[in-house]
Design a protein that fits this description.
The chain is an all-alpha fold. Helix content is about 60%, strand content about 5%. A hairpin with a 2-residue loop joins strand 1 and strand 2. The chain is globular and about 70 Å long. It starts with a strand and ends with a helix.
Length: about 270
Amino acid sequence: MELFSPSGQVNPSSVPGLQEWLRAVNQVVEFQVLAGPEDSEIEELRRLGYRPETVAASDRSRLAWEEFFADLLASDPISREELRVRVQARELVHEHMDVFGKLLTEYRIDLRRAVSFDPRRPLSGRPGMTAFADQVPSLRIAVDLKVELFRNRSKPWKVNAIHDIDALSIAVPYCHVVVPDSEMADLLSRSAVAQRNGTRILRRLRDLPDALATSTATARAGQYEATKTDWLRPGETFCTDMETLRTTALQLPGNWRTSPGTVGKTI
């Protein structure tokens, strides 16, 4: 999160204590994103455009997309290698096509030339295209998980599986430690995803404290550079309350804020 006053962006180092306050802002925002809105906030959020039913409709559509393909596979079985290619293509087209198209335009990439496609040779562009898609960690993880789910024809698709894949495809490349449920941990273990991304994947939540202790010791040894947005510093309490932010903001020196009543809007 960044802070702006009427004259532009505020430099955190220009106000004593402001960097620490912004760190607390990030903590509050992260907590609110995870917690979601309270019931008492729904009416005001709807006035501002909040539509949770849109998310539910999207979930149903995405589930139907996977169920449709599962039905096709039931009537037309294919090899595991071919299944992975098709799942990869579906994932790119259905989940990432808009961004993919924009990137091709922005960098002026001729896709046919980039993947060595020759119209005289059927499937000539397939190796290049699949190799490219596998270079995108989040895409590769989603594909690996979905391939395993499609291979298990006895288990129907559920929305929770889609949510798990969404979360893991981002968490595994970016986090040092990930604790999925037992099913997803098993599916992840069937590929080299942990070694490829340098991520520890735990099967039991009770193993997390030891894993975090190891990561903390590594960080303190200087192998990872501390940044201005560290989540928590020694002696600090993780901030989860917006009112606390407003109160502490008023205690900071300087004229970077507009007025006490608009601190929340300035974040």
